[in-house]
Amino acid sequence: MASPTKKRRLDSDSADSSSPPAKLTKVQPSVPSKPESSSTQPGVLRWLEPLGKSRTCLHATHLNPPSRSKVAAFDLDGTVIASWSSKAPPLEWRWWKECVPTKLGQAANEGYSIVIVTNQAALKSPKLEREWKEKLALVVAAIPEVPFRLLAATAKDKFRKPMTGMWDEVQRMFAEDGVEIDKSASFFVGDFAGRIYGDSGKKKDFAGTDRKWALNVGVRFFTPEEYFLGEDPDPKFSLKGFHPSSLPEALPLFEPVSSPLLPLKPTQELVLFIGYPCLGKSTFYRTHFEPKGYEHINQDTLGTREKCVRAVEKALKAGQKCVVDNTNRDASTRRFYLDLAKKHGVPVRAMLFTGSIDLAWHNNLYRAFCLPSSVQEREPSRDLLPLSAFKSFEDNYEEPQLAEGFMEIKKIHWVFDGTEDERKKWLQWLELDEKRN
Questions:
Q1: d(CA 351, CA 408)
Q2: What is the pTM of this model?
Q3: Which of 16, 39, 43, 50 has minimal CB crowding within 10 Å?
Q4: Which domains does the chain have, with CATH numbers?
Q5: Is the pLDDT of residue 24 over 50?
Q6: Strand 348-353 and strand 270-274: pairing?
Q7: CA angle (379 as vertex; 378, 382 as ends), nearest 5
Q8: Rounded CA gap, 236 and 242, in Å?
């Protein structure tokens, strides 16, 4: 079997389609693309206020798309139209296949609400956005009778697939119309399906983002070949990246379990937390150590390591027990605190949070973009930490040793703490790109 045509990509939903050339459309748009257009004329896209606090999700409608319990969602590039090539003229486009407009019309006639959801992080300038909107005006002019809603994620935030921000907005808008979406009757069509090609296992798709999005949302998934051409599902696909289901099950909260997490009798001690950001260290402190009177020393709060060291010395001099809730990635960093404890004759224990960089990054995305409202009510919002914070720890990490001066080293395993609905959200595919690094 021959290999598929090599694909190119310019950070839109997909790489260039390998389908036979359809008729190219290369004319000036009949109606100039204007932000916040109020038109509902057939063949004219109406641009509404962008969604999100940072206005990063573009939002448009064609005609007056109805809110129905059945939703037919479609990717744009590589699914409805052929993928955007960086070498093509800005206004040049073609259908993915010539049957696409007919199939879109059929779905609308069968009682589906048509929704297009697309990643468009390449729209990094007003010029690129304007040209993209002008191209879409041409596309819409070619399907003047099909009502639909379009959402486009232009930044790497909660709207970017496979995260479900765009779907969450669709659900919200439909709910305002008194409509609850029936996920069992809805579906999504996209070309980033994680398909592999032939027995060699060579990648056919650039990524698996679209299939992951459908799994996160909870709707059926079809590739363009399956939906538009009626082909059988391709059983060969592989979803790369981290998913929480890969974590070991039923690990104890800490090891070894032969000694208690906290001393049975009140005693002064210094505890060093060690591990990547976003592994629940601060929550662990609040749950287990704060109720026992341990002082919390944290560089995010104090600002510098020097201030943390001074705070530890002050606490030890006062006879207080305390926790240093930093990453404490290497022996030289930990030495500052161990030397102080030795000076004041205070025992030191290490709490090693064992989660991987992939789990830490996943938690970072979850708490920045995906916290359910129930969590937001009880925890402050947090900004996304840069990847460099995780890579720096990974590159400089030294596993703690008893020889450094620790009385004990306990391993703390990640255990999700939350309601079942919160856990379902955490168990989604959460990525800003197919590959973290």
A1: 9
A2: 0.87
A3: 39
A4: 45-240 (3.40.50.1000), 254-426 (3.40.50.300)
A5: no
A6: parallel
A7: 155
A8: 19
The token pair at 121 is: 């992080």
pLDDT, position 146 = 96
Least confident of 83-92, 175-184, 313-322, 406-415: 83-92
Question: What is the per-residue pLDDT across 302-349, written as a single tens digit (0 to 9) for each?
Answer: 999 999 999 999 999 999 999 999 999 999 999 999 999 999 999 999
Tell me how far apart the alpha carbons of residues 295 and 289 are, in angstroms, rounded to a whole number. 8
Can you read off the two tokens belonging to residue 271?
């505890």
Q: Which amino acid is at 407?
A: M
Q: Which two tokens stand for residue 144?
A: 């003047």
